[in-house]
Design brief:
mainly alpha; Arc Repressor Mutant, subunit A; 2 domains; about 70% helix
Length: about 160
């Protein structure tokens, strides 16, 4: 995690702050982590996100007395647009969280099939058949039923 933080070339104080924040976020979400083996990846990703927040916030805090610079429109848009963008990002994050929450409530067979089919690039139906023991002709219909169940769960909870 420290190498991720240092790779963003933050000041020592900011780097330490990001490092501590990432560990704090980890402690906050400890109960939600379902795959302990991926904790390192989670920490690295969180550290990267925190670094980007610090970089973005430091770019906004440029002090100047130049009136021409003050009259220019920011590349980030207006404060109102930034607020709208952040609200949209939060709403999108909530939709994704709900989707994965409902996905985890599907049956094991559906979760396995959909996980395999989400791979990039997607495997052939022959590979899926061999891996999961499902007849090739049953993969498409089973996939449709699983996706219908997921959609129904999301609609029932008002997530769509």
């Amino acid at each position: 995690m420290w190498s991720v933080v240092r790779a963003h070339r933050l000041s020592d104080a900011d780097a330490h702050e990001v490092f501590q924040t990432a560990w704090f976020r980890f402690a906050q979400h400890l109960g939600r982590i379902r795959e302990p083996g991926k904790a390192g990846a989670w920490l690295a990703s969180t550290a990267r996100h925190e670094c980007l927040k610090v970089i973005r916030s430091s770019q906004r805090l440029t002090l100047t007395d130049d009136p021409q610079l003050l009259d220019r429109v920011s590349e980030d848009g207006t404060p109102e647009q930034s607020l709208l963008d952040s609200e949209e990002a939060a709403a999108q994050g909530e939709r994704v969280r709900r989707l994965w929450q409902e996905f985890e409530e599907l049956g094991e067979r559906c979760r396995q099939l959909l996980r395999v089919l989400m791979a990039s690039p997607p495997p052939s139906y022959q590979d899926v058949s061999a891996a999961l023991g499902i007849a090739v002709g049953s993969i498409g219909p089973l996939r449709q039923r699983c996706l219908r169940r997921l959609r129904a769960r999301l609609e029932a909870r008002g997530a769509m």
